[in-house]
Amino acid sequence: MPGFGLLVDDFDDGVRDPATWSGSYGDIVEVGGRARVPCTTAYSAYASAAAYTLAGSQIACRVYPPAAGGAGVEALAEVLVLSSVGGTDAGFSLNLVTGLLHLISRTGYGDPNEVALIYSPSAHAWVRLREGAGTLAWDTSADGATWTTRRSATSPAWVAEANLEVILAGHRDSGAGDYAEFDNFNLLRKTTVGAVARNAPTLTSLARTGPVLSGS
């Protein structure tokens, strides 16, 4: 079964890859080397097929959030792995109305152990959800190279299923329509001598460079 680590896109060709993002919905486009997702009262997302597993794998990307734009409750940019059961998912939900980045692992649309961080556009520019050896970890990074683990938890059983989907989504309850943008999906950076190179990480490289997991 393919892991999410095999799903890679730099969004540089100006065209949504219909194979990689076959489940997409809404008026999404690629503009300026980024995936652009409307943040309106409708629902829009770049979405993969429901054909991957998170066990021993990861999702990661650069996030450019929408403006709050007068929304009353939420103006969201989200990076989520969805299970086949509605309301059972995990990942990141950034709400520009509250200024909070939510690190979630929900069952029945709820997560009693949710972690909410005061959003920093620099420190939380990149997000990564990774699974290994029965532990799920939520990481953030300023540059896509050096990562900090913000939450870790025992992996729910569903992360090993082979029909998971990832979405890069936008939505707001009200206010002026805007968009969220995403870039470099699973294209992390590593420092090399005299240069910064982008590379699609392997599980070996993740084990070598990823931070040590700690309790939530």
Spatial strand order of the main sheet: 1-2-13-4-9-10-11
SS strand fraction: 35-45%
- Report low-confidence residues grouped into runs of 5 or more: 191-216
Distance N to C terminus: 29 Å
Tally of structural domains: 1
Q: Helix proportion of residues, in percent?
A: under 10%
How many β-strands, per DSSP? 15
CATH architectural grouping? Sandwich
> Whole-number radius of gyration?
16 Å
Quick one: CATH class? Mainly Beta
Topology order in helix (H) and strand (E) letters? EEEEEEEEEEEEEEEH
Helix/strand-derived class? mainly beta
Per the CATH scheme, the topology name is Jelly Rolls
Task: Give a brief rundown of this model.
This protein has 216 residues and is mainly beta. The protein has 1 helix and 15 strands, in the order E-E-E-E-E-E-E-E-E-E-E-E-E-E-E-H.
Description:
The strands form 3 sheets. The protein has a 7-stranded antiparallel β-sheet, with no helix packed on it. The protein has a single domain, classed as Jelly Rolls, CATH 2.60.120. The protein has 216 residues and is mostly beta strands. The chain has one helix spanning 203-209; strands spanning 29-31, 34-39, 44-47, 58-64, 75-82, 89-95, 100-106, 115-118, 126-132, 135-141, 147-154, 165-172, 178-183, 188-192, 195-199. It has 1 helix and 15 strands, in the order βββββββββββββββα. The model is unreliable at 191-216 (pLDDT under 50).
